[in-house]
């Protein structure tokens, strides 16, 4: 069934349903949609088909339903063999008469609601099985125009099966494309619970448990950073870019609180510093918050992508000489491409000397704090004024889960609070200091904490440590495998600091060429071509990009708990297979 | 079972398990936790208990497990009667030996994973049943210190059952506390699928279907706003506050694009306008983006909370006379407290006359665009330059789902793009104009579109219309019921524009008092007291707040599809019951 049976013809031979047999209707958008709602996914398909029909004529509806019933009947045997375990099998249910309006809160809607959700879960668990099955594709690639043909005019023809079918299995053991990969089952259970609770982090009143969990978890994270007694402040935000934006806002509030009321005109010309390898969110924050990207000064790095502290100090002095005020330094713990860790202690020395806010962007590398073996790469992080740390990256928590942690308590509140009396009432019957809404730049805030909390509870700190150590071992394995292998060239020398392994694959046709511009121009096109072929064949996914004056190279990253050495081997074999004749 | 059987004593009388019977151990944190993991939720409880033990000694672990097995055995009958339908019943599974590390991607982890998820779903479906059951409490209130006692020291004792137990049933027919209420089952299924797909909206490459769905849905929303052919731009953001922040950023970029590179110093003194009744996110944006809250000018409103256009024009002229540049006007379509709709057409006339960006904050009221009966309240919205519209409020989409829509294409990209070559590769094999990452202030972005898309597909536009019309009918019912009823006083006269009904309840002891300061002072304390008693008894929840010079009053809002007239009647009865003797 996983292989997908071709949908049977719609012409009926014998009919077991209550509608009279009709001649095969002309193909239309519903048929196109029905064509993909086959096989194991037919049940939700029928349901949604039912929903779809409620604005259509009865004739049209019965046609669709009968067509589906036939398909269902034909696919019955092949699909029911899949489940395997009789305990998971449920009675076949006819959803052809079920409408969205029949679900709860509809009267007597309970049974249909539960049955509907169980069917959804069956589809999802089938998807999960396939995600972890190496014999399935990572993706079933289609160009935008191809998918759009099925969706044009908002005709709603694309089914939720398609959503999974044409989507990318980010949890697949061979998906290496992003910093966030993997599908943690405990985290997933946490997300399902969160969405069922459907509340937000606005006040203790409406999210008492989540608000407290957030508070406890942030404290634990601050302890791990090394701030005394875990003191300080923090909040979960919708991603690392927003967390980094918070850090700039808070730093500005610390040094120039009057900007909150009077605007940037009340401050001198402020400058910010970050590495040329840092994440672009620092630049986005400079633009958004009114500093201007020209006042973000890029720092030079060594060949491994780490900030050169002397360059920072020189640029601070230069800015001061021009009359500008150096306000904020971002040190990256785990850069996006090279996985480099800036030397935090040396940067902290300079920040202390010149009274500059030190932020550590550990969106990608913060997870290494959980590993006794690797946390030394963030030495000095306890000297930072603020830290971004995304559990949804290296720690495998489902998206989104990002924290901004602040050493000094009160700044977050001071910076963002507007004391809207109609939103936060001081005369509530409980201790309103637990209401977090006024700390945030958001109002309502999605509950990102529970899945993380549940995972931490289930795995323990040691579970995260094992995961991280394993991923770093795998990247060392890849590095050691290819560093001297024919056809590979490393982008920088030495074992990677994080799981990022950056390399060029040199096809045989380029191996003899001298180190000329022509060679680099041709090499620049190799990674995109291999990636395109990978996506077409759907076997694996890995990212590529240029960086500075370096032409396109592959950036392998490993954060997927499902990945093993065999998957690493598969990746290099696949690159060699696809790239051999370029 | 819903009533909760008291957990049986841990002392064993007869033992059916393989561990030797032991004397009852002293109560510790595990017991405290176990005490609440009883009844129908015992299965996930056992599982999590198993997870919890993996770092503990074998002795400790077997003690817990055996204790659980006993409890499970004792509760077996009472719980298995609940499901009712045999189709939903699954074989009892012993999770006492299951660890998080046994789940996928563990070898042979498939069966345990599926079983685990099915158990989670059983807990969630039980929760859903109770949510729609009026005989259950809306919440089981505990003070922060009480819940914290169970969580202190991050000992992880609080179970996921507690999370639901002590949480607030925002989908309960009698939960009226927030603008976002209700639990839409189709939307919930969409959220479960989204979290299983676990990808983000960064690029077409990793979220092809979601990226296209977002594009089509935004276009449909723009068509409904009335922009020709649905042209324009937009993006889903993490809530209305961020959507409003986008609007201010885009307006600034339109008039002063050089601020992006040079900062606010490159612009003259810019001023923004919004109603004194508007949402505080406009003020937060003024602070964050470097305008300063003093440069946000508050507009006077009529007694219904609607902006007085003449006041806007006078203040624009005054600002210009001072040499400031009026740049941005926010018109609210559905204010937070009164539910007021600012007169958009008259405001648009002024904005056109003085070349000012017009934003419509329809976070709360935007949903009314789906109703032929009520959309006239937003007449003129098609003249706005940008619109915030939160399907997660009036349209019942699960949190978070908020859109910022922009009439002019290109501004969003121009304002936010940083063209990070290492993140967005123009040499990909597909049409990269579908990559949305560089339009956003975020980098990774949660998939908020699918649940909305699925609901739209299932209900149709007409389904949303019916929901909205019904909620407005219910609020009219409440208004007509209490406007002349003894013991009630309306905060403003006339039928509400949105579902907001604002009123004071006057306890008998205050009814005879003259209109004095003392009366208002005493009245100010009534709503908080009633609310506190409501929360303690857990029967219903409704918000209160002061506004301007008005003392605390109740703000009833209805967006919950489960609410009926009987729930409205219940609310007033409950207010009268609790407030009678104050």
Automatic annotation (TrEMBL), chains A, B:
EC number: 4.1.1.15
Ranges where the record places region Disordered: 1-21
Gene3D superfamilies, alphabetized: 3.90.1150.170, Type I PLP-dependent aspartate aminotransferase-like (Major domain) (3.40.640.10)
Skewed-composition ranges (Low complexity): 7-19
Assigned keywords, A-Z: Decarboxylase, Lyase, Neurotransmitter biosynthesis, Phosphoprotein, Pyridoxal phosphate
Gene Ontology annotations of biological process type: gamma-aminobutyric acid biosynthetic process
Domain of life of the source: Eukaryota
Quaternary assembly: Homodimer.
Family: Belongs to the group II decarboxylase family.
Name of this chain's protein: Glutamate decarboxylase 1
UniProt organism field: Lates calcarifer (Barramundi)
């Amino acid at each position: 069934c996983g292989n997908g049976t071709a949908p049977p013809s719609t012409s009926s031979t014998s009919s077991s349903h209550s509608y009279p047999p009709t001649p095969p209707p002309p193909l239309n958008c519903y048929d196109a949609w029905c064509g993909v709602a086959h096989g194991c996914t037919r049940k939700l398909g029928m349901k949604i088909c039912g929903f779809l029909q409620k604005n259509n004529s009865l004739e049209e509806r019965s046609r669709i339903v009968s067509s589906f019933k036939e398909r269902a009947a034909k696919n019955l045997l092949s699909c029911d063999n899949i489940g395997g375990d009789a305990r998971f099998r449920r009675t076949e249910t006819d959803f052809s008469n079920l409408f969205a309006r029949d679900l709860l809160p509809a009267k007597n809607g309970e049974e249909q609601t539960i049955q509907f959700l169980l069917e959804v879960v069956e589809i999802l668990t089938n998807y999960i099985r396939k995600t972890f099955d190496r014999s399935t594709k990572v993706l079933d690639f289609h160009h935008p125009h191809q998918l759009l043909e099925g969706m044009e005019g908002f005709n709603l023809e694309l089914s939720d099966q398609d959503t999974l079918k044409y989507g990318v299995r980010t949890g697949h053991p061979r998906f290496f494309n992003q910093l966030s990969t993997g599908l943690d089952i405990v985290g997933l259970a946490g997300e399902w619970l969160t969405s069922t609770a459907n509340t937000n982090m606005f006040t203790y009143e409406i999210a008492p448990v989540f608000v407290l969990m957030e508070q406890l978890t942030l404290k634990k994270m601050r302890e791990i950073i090394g701030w005394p007694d875990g003191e300080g402040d923090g909040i979960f935000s919708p991603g690392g870019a927003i967390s980094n934006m918070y850090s700039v806002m808070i730093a500005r509030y610390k040094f120039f609180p009057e900007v909150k009321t009077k605007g940037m005109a009340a401050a001198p010309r402020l400058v910010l510093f970050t590495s040329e390898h840092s994440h672009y969110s620092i630049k986005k924050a400079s633009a958004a918050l009114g500093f201007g990207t020209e006042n973000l000064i890029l720092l030079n790095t060594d060949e491994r992508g780490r900030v050169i502290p002397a360059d920072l100090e020189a640029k601070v002095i230069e800015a001061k000489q021009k009359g500008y005020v150096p306000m904020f330094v971002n040190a990256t713990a785990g850069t996006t491409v090279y996985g480099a860790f800036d030397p935090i202690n040396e940067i902290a020395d300079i920040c202390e000397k010149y009274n500059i806010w030190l932020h550590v962007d550990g969106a990608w590398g913060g997870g290494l704090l959980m590993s006794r073996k690797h946390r030394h790469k963030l030495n000095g992080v306890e000297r930072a004024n603020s830290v971004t740390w995304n559990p949804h990256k290296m720690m495998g928590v489902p998206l989104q889960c990002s924290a901004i942690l602040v050493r000094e308590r009160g700044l977050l509140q001071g910076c963002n609070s507007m004391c809207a009396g109609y939103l936060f009432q001081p005369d509530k019957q409980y201790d309103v200091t637990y209401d977090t809404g006024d700390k945030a730049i958001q109002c309502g805030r999605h509950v990102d904490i529970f899945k993380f909390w549940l995972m931490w509870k289930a795995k323990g700190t040691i579970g995260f440590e094992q995961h991280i150590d394993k991923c770093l071992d795998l990247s060392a394995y890849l590095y050691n495998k290819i560093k001297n292998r024919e056809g590979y060239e490393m982008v920088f020398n030495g074992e990677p600091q994080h799981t990022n392994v950056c390399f060029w694959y040199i096809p045989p046709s380029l191996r003899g060429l001298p180190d000329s511009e022509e060679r680099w121009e041709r090499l620049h096109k190799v990674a995109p071509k291999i990636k395109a072929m990978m996506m077409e064949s759907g076997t694996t996914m890995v990212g590529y990009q240029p960086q500075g004056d370096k032409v396109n190279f592959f950036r392998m990253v490993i954060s997927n708990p499902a990945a093993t050495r065999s998957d690493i081997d598969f990746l290099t074999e696949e690159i060699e297979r696809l790239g051999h004749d370029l």
